[in-house]
Design a protein that fits this description.
Bound molecules: N-(5'-phosphopyridoxyl)-D-alanine
Order of helices and strands: EEHEEHHEEEHEEEEHEEHEEEHH
Family: Belongs to the class-IV pyridoxal-phosphate-dependent aminotransferase family.
Radius of gyration: 20 Å
GO molecular function, one term: transaminase activity
CATH superfamily of the largest domain: D-amino Acid Aminotransferase, subunit A, domain 2
InterPro entries: Aminotrans_IV (IPR001544), Aminotrans_IV_CS (IPR018300), Aminotransferase-like (IPR036038), BCAT-like_C (IPR043132), BCAT-like_N (IPR043131), Class-IV_PLP-Dep_Aminotrnsfr (IPR050571)
Pfam families: Aminotran_4 (PF01063)
Distance between the termini: 39 Å
Number of helices: 8
Number of strands: 16
Structural class: alpha+beta
Cofactor: pyridoxal 5'-phosphate
Length: 290
């Protein structure tokens, strides 16, 4: 089910999700040669826009691509996309590929080949209940900080989770927890909030960064950026995932075992709920100031 057609910006033209067509030579399609962003809008207002655009610039630079559009041009596209969707909360998906030269060749085309630029929008649905996750080996490459459209290992891990009736796969490298297939991971261990440090082995999630800033600014809990072993993860008091479309998503089960102990075993823990409360206020400043 594809639902109602939604607007699509594609290489300078406007079309919709039914009519948009890309070239078979687009290097995104042939090689996964491109980068992307997912930018949420809550109550019609883009959230973390500067951070998402800064990460897009970093990703483009890392793969040797120039900025295809200026910030005002992106903004005009986002405004038109958001005007074209009837949903309180929506996610803009944008991707930039290394264009569609006439010949398939691994080496990059010259600068005369324009980048492929696509942006569309979809509703963000609400999440029901906590996440059940599996742990699995991280089969990705050595530059997971680039938000590359190459997501085959991520999709394989997520599929493995889905086949086990779970929501997310937690990727483990050398016994250390990196992140989820499409989320960052936080744990509460001994009263401290712990998440993996950014670097080439994981994506610097915008939600992760905004949450850490909030935690420091409002002194909500001691926070530490260090790698967590899988055994420490299993012993953690609370675990949650973060992403632009899922906010803070409590993890209730890891490899079939409940997270936490006592009254909160297998349920969202009190610190997760408190942090989420503060995060919701950050998302909806107009509500909290009323
Ligand atoms: N995924 N880690 C990975 C591997 C991700 O793909 C994502 C986001 C995150 C969280 O990042 P952020 O807080 O900036 O959304 C972490 C997006 C939502 C996706 O691919 O749909």
């Amino acid at each position: 089910m594809r639902g109602q057609p939604r607007p699509v910006y594609l290489n300078g033209e406007w079309c919709d999700t039914e009519t948009a067509r890309v070239s078979v030579f687009d290097r995104g399609y042939l090689f996964g040669d491109g980068v992307y962003e997912v930018i949420p809008a809550f109550a019609g207002r883009l959230f973390g826009l500067d951070e998402h655009m800064a990460r897009l610039s970093r990703s483009l630079e890392a793969i040797g691509m120039a900025e295809p559009l200026g910030r005002d041009e992106w903004q005009a596209i986002f405004d038109r996309l958001l005007a074209g969707i009837d949903a309180p909360d929506a996610a803009i998906y944008l991707q930039v590929t290394r264009g569609a030269p006439a010949k398939r060749d691994h080496a990059w085309p010259g600068n005369d080949v324009p980048a492929g630029v696509m942006a569309t929008v979809s509703p963000i649905g609400s999440i029901a209940g906590g996440a059940r996750v599996i742990t699995c080996p991280d089969a990705r490459w050595a530059r997971c900080d680039i938000k590359s459209i190459n997501l085959l290992p991520n999709t394989m891990a997520r599929q493995q989770a889905a086949e086990q009736g779970c929501d997310e796969a937690v990727l483990v490298r050398d016994g250390l927890v990196m992140e989820g297939a499409a989320t960052n991971l936080f744990a509460v261990i001994g009263g401290r909030l712990v998440t993996a440090p950014t670097g080439p082995r994981l994506l610097a999630g915008i939600t992760r960064g905004l949450l850490l800033d909030l935690v420091h600014r409002e002194q909500l809990i001691e926070a530490e950026e260090s790698f967590i072993t899988v055994s420490a993860l299993r012993e953690a008091d609370e675990v949650f995932l973060t992403s632009s479309t899922k906010d803070l998503w409590p993890v209730v089960e890891i490899d079939g075992e409940p997270v936490g102990s006592g009254a909160h075993a297998g349920r969202a823990g009190p610190i997760t709920r408190r942090l989420d409360h503060h995060f919701q206020a950050l998302k909806h400043p107009q509500r909290s100031s009323q």
